[in-house]
Amino acid sequence: FAQRASMIESDSYDWAMGELMAYASLAKENYPVRLSGQDSERGTFSHRHAEIITEDGEEKYFPLKNLGGEHAMVRVYNSPLNEYGVLGFEYGYSLANPFGLTIWEAQFGDFFNVGQVIVDQYISSAKEKWGVKSGLVLFLPHGYEGQGAEHSSGRIERFLSLCANYNMQVVNPTTPANHFHAIRRQLHRDIRVPLISFTPKSLLRHPDCTSTIADFTEGHFREIIAGNEPGSSSKVTRLLLCSGKIYYELAAARKEAHAEHTSIIRIEQLYPFPEKQLKEVLKDYSKNTELVWVQEEPLNMGAALFVKQQMGDCKLRIISRPPSGVTAEGLTALHKIHQTEIIKEAMN
Q1: What pLDDT, in 10s, does the model give residues 225-272?
Q2: Where are the domains of the chain?
């Protein structure tokens, strides 16, 4: 908590702080918040600390229940290790309490597959089948970091294959502020649509993955984050499109290589696809600029094929892992080889 206090002085807020501020600000606006998951109180990656246990006993303290003045309740629960049962319960809770924020968090995004039937039968289709609307939020930790096939992928491709007629929102935010705004807009819109958010793991403590207070107070959710190239956009000959934490690896490689001819665009919202915003961004670049989609996932997974379809007649090259029947390699050494190959090819 001393570290969190220092964020105020440095005006550099990390992922967990941004998320907790979203909950606290909604509660102060009298919107109740409910979050449950297998290790949600502490956070699977020891980052959230929504509850604190005293050193000399078993008493728990919940900072979000002590916001001062009048406020709605923020409840964070550690749930049983039963994704099917808990996800079904939270979906039902979101229907019963449409004016509150209900979130289910997987311990790792991969684990939602045990609750796949809830996604298929209710979350993705209840509105079209029965006119039933839900604002349920799913947090699915996602990212290729050498942890193997059971701890790497929230199966972006599965959710995108279910998307149609604005039945869900699918986001893959890369900044604390964008995560903050994605959470808050769930209740500040007049509509209720499920939100599938692929949340990070290594970015929770990445020194570059921070936001300023102005990003929270003056900003809004950004479907696309573009540019930041060191030179003019007129110098750019290659435009890398990506989504998620691979952006930070690409940005580091670009900086190291002094690759002013390369620019990076982050697609923060995958569905509904931000076609209009992307077209506006592309106007700044030459029509001869090479367009490349870069992802960590195998070619038959992730967002590659979905994005290629959305891009229509645009000539889009894809850099990814080769097609695979499993989400990730079982050997850390092999993971590093493939990850390095992707970054090198993108910077070639």
Answers
A1: 997 655 567 789 999 999 999 999 999 999 999 998 999 999 999 999
A2: 2-217, 224-347
